[in-house]
Amino acid sequence: MKVLIISDTHGKIENVKMILERTIPLGVGTVLHCGDYVSDARLLQKYYPGVEIYYVYGNCDVGFGGAYSEVVTIEGVSFYMTHGHRYGVKWGEYDDLIIDAIAHEAQVAVCGHSHCAHIERKEDVLLLNPGSMTQPRDGKYPSYAIVEVKGGQIKEANIMQIIENENVIIHPISNRYRAR
């Protein structure tokens, strides 16, 4: 199964809908929305009832009330998802996020908030920030991530950009990242 990871849609889901229309036929069955705005994730649930959509609240989701972090298990791989504003990820500080992911026995830590795409392996955890689908701060192109999981293993993880309505891999990571 492929997992689409997004964050920081900020009221604009056109890009997400375009990506889902292209990736559902390729095996995307789950979406993780890392906050800002949860109302966008709820809208996506209405548009795509056959897709599992999980979300956490971000710093711009004040007043909605809900979880700022959650552990989701997909095909035997556990994802610790959070927005990131409580961890300092905006300034490239991921250590506390990794500590919490390990405490929750997660194999993948996903967050947003910085609007900058980031992927690396730390302490046996795949750390992934998909960037922003609407307001990227690390370039002019929106970004998202796709992680393929199967049988308790991470098969592939990529951060993608949308360039002129085409999907382009910007940070490919293949088979180097496997579940513990």
Automatic annotation (TrEMBL):
Residues 1-151 form the Calcineurin-like phosphoesterase domain. Its EC number is 3.1.4.-. It comes from the Bacteria. GO terms for molecular function: hydrolase activity; metal ion binding. Keywords: Metal-binding. Its cofactor is a divalent metal cation. Belongs to the metallophosphoesterase superfamily. YfcE family. PANTHER family: VACUOLAR SORTING PROTEIN VPS29. This is Phosphoesterase. It comes from Cellulosilyticum lentocellum (strain ATCC 49066 / DSM 5427 / NCIMB 11756 / RHM5).
